[in-house]
Design a protein that fits this description.
The complex is a heterodimer of chains A (550) and B (375).
Chain A: H1 11-39, H2 49-55, H3 58-91, H4 97-109, H5 112-123, H6 128-135, H7 146-170, H8 174-182, H9 187-216, H10 219-224, H11 231-242, H12 247-274, H13 292-320, E1 322-325, E2 328-333, H14 336-343, H15 348-376, H16 380-390, H17 397-407, H18 419-444, H19 447-455, H20 460-488, H21 494-497, H22 505-515, H23 518-543
Antiparallel strand pairs in A: 1-2
Helix pairs in contact in A: 1-12, 1-15, 1-16, 1-17, 2-12, 3-7, 3-9, 3-13, 4-7, 4-13, 5-7, 5-13, 7-9, 9-12, 11-12, 12-17, 13-23, 14-23, 15-16, 15-18, 15-20, 15-22, 18-20, 19-20, 20-23, 22-23
Chain B: E1 5-14, E2 17-27, E3 32-36, H1 43-51, E4 58-63, E5 66-67, E6 78-81, H2 93-102, H3 108-121, H4 137-150, E7 155-159, H5 167-184, E8 187-192, H6 195-201, E9 204-209, E10 212-217, H7 219-224, H8 229-234, E11 239-248, E12 251-256, E13 260-263, E14 275-281, E15 286-289, E16 296-305, E17 309-316, E18 321-327, E19 339-344, E20 350-353
Parallel strand pairs in B: 3-8, 3-9, 6-7, 7-8
Antiparallel strand pairs in B: 1-2, 1-4, 4-5, 9-10, 11-12, 11-14, 12-13, 14-20, 15-19, 16-17, 16-19, 17-18
Helix pairs in contact in B: 2-3, 2-4, 3-4, 4-5
Classes of the chains: A mainly alpha (550), B alpha+beta (375).
């Protein structure tokens, strides 16, 4: 039953208003500004010249079809790899399954462009494998262009599908599978006709997430795409061209980006509404030991895909200890790359923590408040907040970066180049995830607990802080650690907003990769990976189990 | 300090959907009062209106002479026990009980003393330092009760507090609740859909259906003289048989299947006329006689032995089915297919008009009638 408490003089109303104002300034205003710049010329006339310029050139239009092709292919393959992997992981006793899971999570948390650059070093024109295999007469096809982007994105994104699907499988009651077997349907047929449909809501959600990540990723195509231009690269190019000249075109391309992702979101929404149901397992599926050939095959499959996905990270860590001469690796090992990394861009490491922790702290407070408003105080204003907070989920990161630059480059709101704008960008980009996890936690807490506190004379705020927040505690902390990892690996928005004073580790890796200094980049990337691993261990400590669910 | 509760013309709506159209009710000071009805009848909604967790769309709610419609739930001084207990899982038993006391800024010693007192009252003091998840359902229920009572509320509200317990514990806990309520003498409003539970604990019961109260009365009145057909069939088991009242030589008769007529003296004077009626005959109000003796002819379809009693499922000669309950005999269960005669305990049966709205028998007590003028 819904709580409709007395509506007058409620503290939560004030909170709603404050959050609405905040969103108006940091999200609605920048997006409105973006829209305005895209259709209003600097002398104040309405014009569609930007759109004409975009759709008039095959080069630009093709970037959309390129992006769609890559994203659809990456989504489909990620699902084909990730869903069976999750099924094997949850249904059978795999060898070393704890390690396997940790590796998969680590893969999902690295920045994709690091994978791209590792694959270039491994399989590129002068890559190690290319030479090795070439030596014994095997010719490896080109890793650049469509294939390369697809490879890197798939290996980066199937772990997300895996984690989502595992979450869904854990909610399937064992008796459903027993019922299926009892009625004569088992094995592959059960997987296809019972398990997959039961996971459908989650699979659709994972597909959207994977598609949006693939569509918005710009580091990978920039490095490995070569002539194969995708849409985010065009946005990025347009922006940097724009800083010199035509602001309108950059804004126009951004608006087109939003329109495309919004359409995709609506299509996904249509499908997910047709597949809506909830499950709650009383008895979760118990892992069985597979035997014989089957056991060998599922173990080989699982370890092969995970090893393939994790290989770039291993190689990056390895190469960070290689001796370098200038930009080239030479035989032997040294810590020179680290020495260089710690003496140059000194700000990168402290910045990563300063910006990351500030963003995280603000984000947690906001996310908990918003989650509370959405779950417990459903009204029009709070539905608006809910929708606003989810908008960045479907907007490519670089577009948000451009919108923020357009909005905050003039007094009195001059923020470009500051830590503040980096923090704002991270908050609006990552808060949808934190809100979703907080909402999920809050929905688990029965309303009557809060009513009990109220009936025992606690005020609304006291109830919130002494009952609701402590009960959400672990959920909030575990959500926060996962957010932290995505914050420190964020690239696509930050790359638009950063400068020498606000550079972070991820940006440092990107900078040195694009300069060709792979040794230094590898050192920064290793520091980043170690930070991620420590965060992850902390997460497992806090949640008290080894099962990460997104 | 107990209060009486007065509700006049209460209305509850969710949007355009009216849950409670117009409801009036008096709950006496110190009374154990139960709202009983099927799920969706509005009983929990009404309870939450009293508690202040639901808005009130119309009418007036009074505690003594204080109108509470717009009073914050925090200020109503209500103890509430929830269906899922709503024990704070991150606080120990002791801290759960002390939670409400701490909100009143009482001196420390008083908080400790009262916490002790109520932990003892519900016999849970040995678990005082435990976390709630390490308690059984019954123990959690006791904590919830102690926590609600510790703040010395004016009213105790209980929303299906026993529905999450297993059958045996449910019976045990209802006795505990009843005893504690008697001891403290606090005005209590209790919601349940279990009619047996309601009869076991209540001073008075209001039977609700579709947002309206059907009858208010002591358990005995509701069972023996239900005000209408809904109450008759919701409380206990009953056989409904379409029938006719007939008058001959100044005597009122009811017609049973097989043209068998029985004189009936309990019909109210103004209703003694020939008319179609519905009989409500509870299974224990029929008794088996050997075939051939004076009675209604019937055939046994099945017999279910339940220990104390044996239930017989029978049909009459016109095909209508009925259930009867007999005390189990040591020697025999009547075989399926046996033809029997049935006697009727006429002083106990109830007779309703064809719409089932009115009971035509004398002695119906419905406290709801007090409001019919006010409506």
């Amino acid at each position: 039953m819904r709580a409709t408490l007395s509506k007058k003089g409620d503290v939560w109303r004030l909170v709603s208003v404050l959050i609405l104002v905040l969103y108006a300034v940091i999200l609605v205003y920048p997006l409105a500004r973006l829209l305005k710049v895209s259709v209003i010329t600097p002398d104040g006339h309405f014009s569609l010249d930007g759109f004409r310029a975009f759709f008039g050139q095959r080069y630009y239009v093709r970037s959309i079809s390129n992006s769609l092709k890559v994203s659809v292919a990456a989504t489909v393959i990620s699902l084909l790899v990730g869903v069976p992997l999750a099924y094997f992981y949850q249904m059978y006793e795999l060898k070393g399954k704890s390690l396997l899971q940790v590796l998969i999570i680590l893969c999902s948390m690295s920045a994709p462009f690091i994978g791209a650059y590792a694959w270039i070093v491994l399989m590129g024109r002068s890559g190690i494998f290319t030479k090795l295999l070439g030596g014994i007469g095997i010719k490896v096809g080109s890793i650049y262009g469509f294939k390369g982007i697809l490879l890197v994105l798939t290996l980066q994104l199937f772990p997300l599908v895996f984690l989502y699907t595992c979450g869904a499988l854990k909610n399937i009651d064992n008796s459903l599978l027993e019922a299926s077997i009892n009625m004569g349907r088992s094995g592959t047929k059960m997987f296809l006709t019972v398990v997959i449909p039961l996971c459908m809501p989650t699979i659709i959600a994972a597909a959207l997430l994977v598609f949006m990540r693939a569509f918005a990723d710009f580091g990978t195509p920039l490095l490995i795409g070569e002539g194969y231009k995708t849409f985010p690269v065009i946005i990025y190019d347009a922006y940097f061209a724009e800083t010199g000249g035509n602001r309108m075109f950059g804004a126009t391309v951004s608006i087109i980006g939003i329109i495309i992702t919004a359409c995709i979101f609506l299509i996904q929404n249509y499908f997910s509404n047709r597949h809506k149901f909830t499950m709650n397992a009383m008895h979760t599926i118990e892992r069985k030991q597979a035997h014989g050939l089957k056991n060998v095959l599922i173990n080989v499959y699982s370890w092969f895909v995970v090893a393939l996905a994790f290989m770039p990270q291993v190689y990056v860590i390895y190469s960070s200890f290689q001796k370098t001469s200038g930009k080239l690796f030479v035989p032997g090992y040294s810590l020179d790359s680290y020495r260089f990394a710690f003496t140059h861009l000194k700000k990168a490491i402290p910045n990563t923590f300063k910006i990351g922790i500030t963003a995280l702290a603000i984000m947690i407070v906001l996310a908990v408040l918003i989650a509370y408003l959405v779950v417990r105080r459903s009204n029009f204003a709070n539905k608006v907040i809910d929708t606003l907070s989810m908008v960045p989920y479907i907007i490519p990161g670089s577009v948000i970066g451009i919108a923020l630059v357009l909005a905050f480059s003039k007094r009195p709101l001059l923020l470009t180049g500051t830590v503040t704008i980096m923090v704002i960008a991270l908050i609006i980009r990552r808060i949808p995830y934190t809100i979703r996890s907080s909402v999920a936690v809050l929905q688990q807490i029965p309303l009557s607990i809060e009513e009990a506190a109220l009936s025992l004379g606690a005020s609304k705020m006291k109830t919130f802080f002494t009952i609701t927040v402590p009960m959400m505690g672990n959920g909030i902390i575990s959500g926060a650690i996962l957010s932290w990892v995505t914050i420190i690996t964020e690239l696509s928005t930050a790359v638009i907003l950063y400068n020498a004073n606000t550079i972070t580790l991820t940006l440092a890796v990107y900078t040195y990769v694009s300069r060709g200094s792979y040794g230094v980049a590898a050192a920064y990337a290793t520091i980043l990976t170690v930070t991620t691993i420590i965060s992850l261990l902390l997460y497992m400590r806090v949640t008290g189990n080894k099962e990460v669910t997104l | 300090m107990s209060v009486d509760i007065r509700i006049r013309n209460a209305v509850k709506k969710y949007g355009d959907n009216t849950i409670i159209p117009d409801l009036s009710l008096d709950i006496r000071e110190g009374e154990f009062f139960t709202l009983l009805g099927p799920s969706g009848c509005g009983k929990t909604t009404l309870l939450r209106m009293i508690a202040g967790f639901n808005t009130i769309e119309g009418g007036d709610f009074f505690f003594n002479d204080v109108r509470i419609n717009d009073m914050d739930p925090v200020k109503r001084n209500i103890g509430m026990v929830f269906q899922n207990y709503a024990i704070f899982p991150h606080l120990t038993v002791e801290k759960n009980v002390a939670f409400g006391l701490k909100n009143r800024n009482l001196p420390k010693e008083e908080i400790a003393a009262k916490t002790d007192q109520f932990l003892k009252l519900v016999k849970i003091e040995e678990y005082r330092t435990r976390m709630p998840e390490r308690l059984s359902g019954g123990q959690q229920q006791r904590v919830a009760l102690a926590r609600a009572l510790a703040i010395t509320p004016d009213v105790l509200l209980m929303d299906e507090p026993l529905s999450n317990l297993d059958a045996k514990l449910r019976v045990e806990m209802r006795t505990v609740i009843k005893e504690i309520q008697n001891e403290i003498g606090i005005t209590t409003v209790y919601v349940t859909h279990d009619q047996e539970e309601a009869m076991a604990v209540s001073d008075r019961i209001a039977v609700m259906n579709e947002g309206d109260i059907q009858q208010i009365g002591i358990p005995k009145a509701l069972y023996q003289r239900p005000a209408n057909l809904f109450v008759a069939s919701f409380i206990g088991l009953t056989n409904l048989i379409t029938s006719r009242l007939e008058i001959s030589n100044g005597q009122t008769y009811i017609c049973l299947p097989g043209e068998y007529k029985i004189p009936l003296d309990t019909i109210r004077k103004e209703e003694r006329r020939a008319q179609d009626v519905i009989l409500s005959i509870r299974p224990e109000e029929l008794y088996v006689k050997p075939f051939g003796e004076d009675g209604v002819a019937a055939y046994v379809d099945d017999a279910v032995f339940l220990g104390l009693n044996t239930h017989y499922f029978i049909h009459f000669e016109d095909g209508e089915k009925a259930e009867i309950i007999q005390e189990s005999q040591i020697d025999s269960i009547i075989e399926k297919g046996t033809k029997i005669s049935l006697g009727v305990k006429t002083d106990k049966i109830n007779v309703f008009d064809t719409e089932g709205k009115r009971n035509l028998v004398e002695g119906v007590v419905n406290d709801l009638d007090a409001y019919s003028g006010a409506l």
